[in-house]
Amino acid sequence: MRTLIAHIALGLAALGFAMTSSAQDAAASAASAAAPVVAAVVEAASAPVAAASAAVAEAAAAPAAAAPTPNKGDTAWMMVATLLVILMTVPGLALFYGGLVRSKNMLSVLMQVLVTFSMIVVLWAIYGYSLAFTENNAFIGGFDRLFLKGTWDNVAGTFANAATFSKGVVIPEIVFVAFQATFAGITCALIVGAFAERIKFSAVLLFTALWFTFSYLPIAHMVWFWMGPDAYTGADVVEAMNAKAGYIWQMGALDFAGGTVVHINAAVAGLVGAYMVGKRVGYGKEAMAPHSLTLTMVGASLLWVGWFGFNAGSALEANGFAALAFVNTFIATAAAVLTWSIGEALHKGKASMLGAASGAVAGLVAITPAAGNVGVGGALIIGALAGFAGLWGVSGLKRILKADDSLDVFGVHGVCGILGALLTGIFNSPNLGGPSAVADWTTVAMITPDAYTIAGQVWVQAKAVLITVVWSAVVSVIAFKLVDMTLGLRVTEEEEREGLDISSHGETAYGR
Questions:
Q1: Residues with Cβ < 8 Å from 70, sequence gap 6 or more?
Q2: What does the UniProt keyword field contain (predicted)?
Q3: Helix pair angle (217-224, 173-191), 10° resolution
Q4: Average pLDDT for residues 201-230, to the nearest whole number?
Q5: Which of 34, 101, 134, 404 has a CA that sits 20 to 30 A from residue 51's CA?
Q6: Does 431 have pLDDT greater than 90?
């Protein structure tokens, strides 16, 4: 544990010392580009004059290896996937959350989701993408892509490309930028459900900016940043390329679409917020039933549809892994709807529409880290378990925690995110129908069934979860405290009783 805390402390310190490595990259690129020419000249110098002339002529005449170019199908799919994730957030998440609060707070939740998402997209373009997805150290990226500079090459007159998971396959980097911006945006928007109906709008925005910078970006870098498959040109460079990747990626943790980066990260921040903002006035004494389950159902349905872009899009290509993630997202979600409904009927005597909608979200959350990492049978089991786990999270666990997590952000996203992350280590096994994981990016060879150890992979998954929980919790406590000291976190009791629609935004969702 002391080693883990030391690593986390080192990572947090690294945020203040992020240095760019663009000059080194440029020098390395120039040296790499010059290597064939230098080799030809050296060879020519050791040969007779005639042979030298022939060698130089042959080197000049030989066509340079063609750089990979994006496939239009992959590019089109990734743009569609990006649009689907936007649909998940606005209007999907906004309506799902909006229907769950009281009518006097409907617009305030819609506003928090919409404006938070929009602010993060802007911050992503300014510095977020650069800090998450450029080379620097194991905990945070550098500043090579500030304001997205370099995504268009003015000298070459072409767009820069981003790696996928296949050698020689790329997509335009600006498409990858947009896709990942939606992940950052929805992650921050998820948090607002934990302290809905009593927080200042300005406090939401300031906290989100701080948490995005010091929690989301480092976790995204640690989990997802690596040098790409084409960087692994031979066994002699493997160790060096691995050392440049994010800390959690180096550990070998599997997170296909954001179990740690998105759901656990956001859920912990939400739980901290629920404690630090405090309970709603009248919580536990007054009725606080959802005002429109119809809107919640509409929102849940949009989340399910949009989640196909979220999960299947994380393959970064229109290929078999995208199809696997697509089917797994479909099946796991359906299974979770059924098990939540069954569990609710057994526990309360009746299955509710709110429970079924919540079950869908639970299944979507749990399958996220596993989507392209497990077989269909594994997805079915993960979804089924998620329905029961989510139901326990919003009932039994919530009573234990004694937090007013208004819209059950931790109960669903935290519990099911952790469940999905751990089960990924089990059902990724080729012995259980999973696709296994890459053992060597030089040859793209997979871990064989006899070499795959479930216990070992689950332990790696558990460490990734623990790092995310501790990191997000520490950053969240500090960020909420800073906001409380500057702007204050809560509205007044009078404003809360009046409703945030009127007191914070001067309008109402419904005519009176």
A1: 161, 170, 171, 172
A2: Ammonia transport, Membrane, Signal, Transmembrane, Transmembrane helix, Transport
A3: 130
A4: 98
A5: 34
A6: yes
pLDDT in tens, 110-130: 999 999 999 999 999 999 999
CB within 8 Å of 32: residues ≥ 6 apart: none
CA proximity to 96, closest of 277, 361, 287, 420: 361
Q: Which single residue is written with the structure tokens 């099911």?
A: 416
Neighbours of 343 (CB within 10 A): 20
Q: Which amino acid is at 116?
A: T
312 vs 307: CA distance, rounded Å: 8
pLDDT at 19: 37
Tokens of 59: 């080197």
Coarse DSSP helix, strand, coil percentages of the chain, rounded to the nearest 5 percent: 70, 5, 25
| Region 190-207 average pLDDT | 98
Instruction: Give the up-direction half-sphere exposure of residue 400: CA atoms within 13 A in the CB hemisphere.
Output: 8
- Asked if 496 contacts 281 with a C-beta cutoff of 8 angstroms, the reply is yes
| Sequence-distant (≥ 6) Cβ neighbours of residue 265 within 8 angstroms | 187, 215, 216, 219, 468, 471, 472
Q: How far is CA 462 from CA 256, 419, 421, 457, 511, in A?
A: 15, 10, 8, 9, 50
Residue 57, number of CB atoms within 10 A of its CB: 12
Inter-residue contact 408 to 464 (CB < 8 Å): no
Higher-confidence residue of 140 and 61: namely 140
**What element of type H or E holds 172?**
strand 170-172
